[in-house]
Amino acid sequence: MTSLTGPVVVDHSLTGRSRLGDRLFGGVARGAGLVVIALVTLIAVFLMSQALPALARNKVNFLTSTAWNVDGTPLQFGIANLLWVTVLSSAIAMVIAVPFGVGVALFITQYAPRWLSRPAATLVDLLAAVPSIVYGLWGLQVLGPHMHGVQTVLQQLFGWFPLFKSAAIDAGSTILTVAVVLSIMVLPIVTALSREVFDQTPTSHKDAALALGATRWEMIRTAVLPFGKPGVISASMLGLGRALGETVAVMIILSTLADGATWSWSMFNGGETFASKIANNAAEFDSPQKAGAFLAAGLVLFLLTFVVNAIARIVIERRKAFSE
Amino acid sequence: MSAIGAASASNLGTVLPGPGFGAGSGFGHRSRGRALRNQLARVVMWAAFGIAMLPLAWILWSVVSKGGDMLLGSQWWTNSQRGITNRVVGGGAVHAIQGTVIQGLVTALIAVPIGVMTAIYLVEYGRGRLAKTVSFMVDILTGIPSIVAALFIYAVWVTAFGFQRVAFAVCLALVLLMIPVVVRSTEEMLKLVPNELREASLALGVPKWKTVVRIVLPTAFSGIITGVLLGMARVMGETAPLLILGPYTKNIATNLFGGLMPTLPTMINQDRTEVLQPALDRVWGAAATLILLILLLNVAGRLIAYFGRPKG
Known about the structure:
The complex is a heterodimer.
Chain A: H1 12-57, E1 68-69, E2 76-77, H2 80-111, H3 114-129, H4 132-143, H5 147-158, H6 175-199, H7 203-211, H8 216-245, H9 248-253, H10 274-280, H11 288-323
Helix pairs in contact in A: 1-11, 2-3, 2-6, 2-8, 3-6, 4-6, 6-8, 7-8, 8-11, 10-11
Chain B: H1 2-15, H2 32-72, H3 75-78, H4 94-125, H5 128-143, H6 146-160, H7 167-192, H8 195-203, H9 208-236, H10 240-245, H11 264-271, H12 277-308
Helix pairs in contact in B: 2-12, 4-7, 4-9, 4-11, 5-7, 6-7, 7-9, 8-9, 9-12, 11-12
């Protein structure tokens, strides 16, 4: 290794010969990166180019209308319902999943005995491996019937509040049931990233807290949680992105409403999310003319998840900037 | 990583209850309230983990108890659903298994080169703005809902090009979902390769590309395979692209570019609203088969990761 410190003799014939291979390989690698950029750009461009003509022919306000009439003329479609159901179900899912996810991540990194910590992490990861159609099937046929009691209690306690008003929907097919299933689906996402940042808490921070006489919990509160906060926010955002875009589980569980159903804020109502609306009407995709309205809904979903994921990315980037 | 963190945490934990820690320190007296809260937090964390395990156990139990029996019959692995109606018991899932495996393999065939090369670019070559943009786009691609990927391929394949809905279009949609998984896992593995290896190789006058191909990639190989298997596990369980691009059929079909190709998710979707028991049994049987397939890929991936991780 001492020879490294001596003057480096560059064999020009060697580098000259290798430059072509290097340029080729580097070019291909760069090209692959460009393909990724091109794909995301193309997704946005294509969705827009096909959604905009439909939006132009749309006769009602796209954002505030609840009408959905894409077969006949005039073309009418609005996403108010879809937006509300999408946001509500995802929000409830996050309210459940984030505390649990953080708790499980703390368990794995701070509390679990050494032999349990790795298997526990693997088990939680397995939740992410269950296909969403199985979640849907399970949510509708197994979990759904058990949701009846929960919903009755909630209605009796908080029924005066519009979110908890009763709606004439079978308990197994409500927004709340969907939210519970979604929370299980995003739990591994929230846990995985939180776990990672909790693990990175500098030992000096933890030791300092413990040396000052902090209990384990106080150490977590004063050292681990503040350090991991951006990671938890970021993890929640990624989970939210997943919940917003989940398709098949929602489609299977949530009962759709008849056209022109009265507006309800209730979480015991049925409805459709962006994704489930598109999936429910997959049969209509035999003709591109009808697909325009659904592509418009897909475009909104794309933008929603884009923003959420970008926020997640920015939060974690800023943490990196601070911790280095 | 996690093992180290947990180890250091548990070491600290054994130090913690030692006598004389509380008095006179910055956190004040070790009052009963603080000890109680500490215990409470411990209980809450254990409970959080316990409750999180409930749905996993419950789902697996439901699938096994409702669909496990189907998997035991040999018919399930040799027959298709051709000519089987919802009142008839029997028939197999071989047509759907075939379709799912074929689509997974074709998807991997397209996504792995792009994903691995992108990761190589990010780790070995990428500097500055372009690399940042690529990395950002990979994150965006990670977050794209599968239904949006399917809509995009529909907009290109059917609306713009005027092609039919075929299995290959499904694969293209799945490629979009698999690329980010492969990129991220490969990236992680390439970063684990010790820099000394690269430096040693370059110092010997080996060109950079050869260093990457002959030194870096082989060292990270098992990790990359793990990423590929996990990526395949993800895309084989996807249903949304199949709903839009790959309608179901009961017959065996292996043509990627013409006709319909059945898959396990669409087989579940086809009969999920059935009330007759024979059809329902097959729905859960297909669900059990799909989970089994995906679990196998996951376990294989994790085993390879465990036994083949770079020792450096």
